[in-house]
Design goal:
Elements (H helix, E strand, L loop, with lengths): L3 H24 L3 H34 L5 H25 L2 H34 L3 H7 L7
Helix pairs in contact: 1-2, 1-4, 2-3, 2-4, 3-4
């Protein structure tokens, strides 16, 4: 049976790799590659947030009865990261390396703390509270699981 913790943690890693690729390109002044890599990272991150907000968090809340606990904190942090992503997008458009790298430094710290909380609290809570529903929840998030 698939574990939400394993699947979603792997998606964090995928997003982290895309982040690093964008940061490397911008650091090297390669704005064409940087813009493409940032867009890939931004899209992957937004997809991750959307899966959690539309499917995973509501399933956990319904299962546990907690609506103002860890999932609410994660939503607020998603909003904070979305603002940083919007500011980073602006810096890509402006080709402002200093601004981009400063924002990316802030974002990586926020993401690392956020991902740790999700992986050590929310996903474990999801695995425990959803148990046999985990595969269905992953399918609803659009994640195909091997049989």
């Amino acid at each position: 049976m698939p574990k939400i913790t394993d699947v979603m943690s792997a998606d964090h890693k995928r997003c982290d790799e895309l982040f690093a690729k964008a940061e490397d390109a911008v650091s090297n002044g390669d704005w064409e590659s940087g813009a493409t890599a940032f867009r890939d990272f931004h899209d992957a991150t937004e997809q991750h947030f959307s899966m959690e907000e539309a499917v995973l968090f509501p399933a956990v809340e319904q299962s546990t009865g907690m609506t103002s606990g860890p999932t609410q904190v994660m939503r607020m942090e998603h909003m904070q990261m979305r603002q940083l992503l919007a500011d980073m997008d602006e810096s890509v458009t402006e080709k402002n390396q200093e601004k981009y790298l400063g924002l990316s430094e802030t974002l990586i710290m926020v993401m690392q703390q956020h991902n740790t909380k999700e992986e050590q609290i929310v996903y474990i809570m999801a695995d425990q509270s959803l148990r046999e529903k985990a595969a269905d929840v992953l399918t609803q998030m659009g994640i195909n699981q091997p049989q």
